[in-house]
Design a protein that fits this description.
The protein is an alpha/beta fold and about 280 residues long. The protein is built from eleven helices and nine strands. The strands form two sheets. It has a six-stranded parallel beta sheet with strand order 1-4-3-2-5-6, sandwiched between helices. The chain has a three-stranded antiparallel beta sheet with strand order 7-8-9, covered by helices on one side. The longest helix has 16 residues. The chain is globular, with a radius of gyration of 19 Å. It starts with a strand and ends with a strand.
Length: about 280
């Protein structure tokens, strides 16, 4: 595994791989790696000849400065976790490699970004779209692997790759969960022990809501019951819990097409998100 700090180093490696006719995959991350990230690395290894993992805590996708400051930064631990997987490059760019002096371009995806996370985190998806565009172009990867846990983000990066004719195919991989059902997230380490015990309640409430909707309960009623259950478990706020179409994330009132149930809630000062197919 080669540690790479600059885009020129990355391009030099990429040129060698192109010349050899090898397929390249990229797994973009912000570090603080867990089993969910490593499952993406495993999928990338199966799908490509060469694998690049990127670590960059992107300031442009944080609308709360405190959230950016608290985000875990664990490069050495991350590198140790990646070592057994035999990846080809760990790209940890310095800020100037992504946003050099005078950087003035913003990538904005409309439609799919405007509600759910977009409504609660203004500018977040512009930051995601901009940094992902940079990483796709710097790596020139054939494939990019993202987790379905950030389902709206997956929709955003898929749309930008298609709309901008970037020759990087976006692959979504299933959410990896703890034994008690909590979706793995780098933010989970910020939970106190008592809050960690409460955290799986959101997933349980979502499963119950999905079951009730499948059984014929009106969507609004099932979602209101889920919201109440999440709050009763000890969450302090439910920002949203909604049923949306799997493609395009349009509001859904029935199961006439594939749908996802998506939720975001606050617990112990930590914002947790999750989604499941219905």
């Amino acid at each position: 595994m080669k540690l790479v700090r600059t885009k020129e180093e990355l391009r030099t490696l990429r040129r060698k791989w192109i010349f050899a006719g090898e397929k390249v995959a990229v797994v973009p991350t912000m570090g603080a790696l867990h089993a969910g990230h490593l499952s993406l690395v495993e999928a990338a290894k199966q799908g490509a000849d060469r694998v690049i993992v990127t670590i960059f805590v992107n300031p442009k996708q944080f609308n709360n400065p405190d959230d950016l400051d608290k985000y875990p930064r664990t490069e050495d631990t991350d590198a140790a976790k990646l070592a057994p997987y035999g990846i080809d490059a760990l790209y940890v760019p310095t800020p100037d490699q992504i946003y050099p002096n005078g950087f003035a371009t913003n990538v904005s995806v409309s439609g799919v970004t405007e509600e759910l996370e977009g409504a609660h985190r203004p500018g977040h998806f512009d930051g995601v779209a901009t940094v992902v565009s940079k990483l796709f172009l710097q790596s020139r990867a054939d494939l990019a692997f993202f987790g379905q846990k950030d389902y709206q983000q997956l929709q955003v990066v898929t749309r930008l790759s298609e709309d901008l004719d970037i020759e990087t195919e976006v692959i979504g991989c299933p959410t990896v969960r703890e034994e008690d059902g909590l979706a793995m997230s780098s933010r989970n380490v910020l939970l106190s022990p008592s809050a960690r015990a409460i955290a799986p309640a959101m997933y349980r409430a979502m499963l119950e809501a999905a079951s009730r909707i499948q059984g014929g309960t009106p969507v609004d009623m099932a979602l209101e019951e889920a919201r109440a259950a999440i709050l009763a478990a000890g969450y302090t706020d439910v920002e949203y819990i909604e049923l949306r179409t799997s493609k395009g994330l349009k509001p859904a009132t029935d199961l006439s097409q594939p749908t996802r149930l998506l939720s975001a809630a606050m617990l112990d000062g930590v914002r947790l998100i999750d989604n499941i197919a219905v």
